[in-house]
Amino acid sequence: MERKVRAKRATLKSIASALGVTPTSVSNAYNNPAKVSRELRERIIEHAHSVNYDGPHPTARSLRTGRCGAIGVLFNDPLSYAFTDAHDITFLRGISSVCEEKGANIVLIPLKNSRPEQRDTLTAMVDGYILNAPYKSHPTIRAALMRGLPTVVVDFDAPEFASVQTNDREMMRAVTAHLLALGHRRVAIVTFPRSEGDGEIVSLDRNFSEENYVVHERIAGCREAFDAGQVPLEGILVCEMQNNEDGGKQAAERLLHRRPDLTALICFSDRLARGAIAHCLAAGLAVPQHISVTGFDGLDPPGHQPQAIRLTTVRQNAFEKGRKAAELLMREGGAGVLKAWIRAELVIGESSARAWESRDQ
Fold this sequence. Notes:
Blueprint: H1 12-19, H2 23-31, H3 38-50, H4 58-65, E1 70-75, H5 86-102, E2 105-110, H6 116-123, E3 128-132, H7 139-146, E4 151-154, E5 162-166, H8 168-181, E6 187-191, E7 201-203, H9 213-228, E8 237-240, H10 245-258, E9 264-267, H11 270-282, E10 292-294, E11 313-315, H12 318-329, E12 339-342, E13 345-347
Parallel strand pairs: 1-2, 1-3, 3-4, 4-5, 5-12, 6-8, 6-9, 9-10
Antiparallel strand pairs: 7-8, 11-13
Helix pairs in contact: 1-2, 2-3, 5-12, 8-9, 10-11
């Protein structure tokens, strides 16, 4: 009975021997192409394909180099949020543009996960982190910061790490000043949660924690403008809701139930603003004739659905924010504590106008 002879699997060493090069050259062709000439790399890859060799095994490569070839992006929301929110989609596109250039992969690590043990496993599969505006005291964030891996924080206050920041405080000061100049004094604010949880309504004179750096900075900008305009902070309501259109609808409904005389809503995202506008129109309140609504982001929603009202908003460059974060993380020699600022701008649209009680004055 004849015995089948199994073909011997090609290895990095056998490829090197067949081509008369060193095993290091073959390894570099896959793991560090810049260290071999283009011609040699093409010759190695072509021969490898001919003997069904697909490159070093990822696990073996990781064990040998101590690197996974991936960066972890941590964010507060469920995984699906990253694929439905215009800001996060654009932000991740900026990160991925650099990853494509560098040959790296992305591991998305949502902090809102029903299986925390899975989340903790994901954090071990990366070479570094980009922290996208997370809650400061979340245990996964604290654990990530303590691992000692290269880390870039985005819209997050951590002076010992490289960071990418937006001028949130300045922009919310400008938005609030814009509404005050239009005669608005009965104003409320709609924000995404400043900590885990949502739905609370408080006055602006309350002491807000720094658990969420973005919320803290935007609240501070509003306060500064109201103070400059001599508008009492205790008369300004702040409602927390999940950062989506439904959250904006619910916030507008609750705020108008408490204060039917409101003339303006300052929303901390375009999604919240679009939801708030939807509720106002359904309730018979014309925008901006009866109530003004402002947003923040300046991005078209996924699918580019036509918008009936062009928002007054703050336009921030989410793509550049993501790209800059990835460039800092993968910078030769490390990012250290470098700081990058992405400047946003106020865009006056059709959703804000003179307060109705001031029109005849």
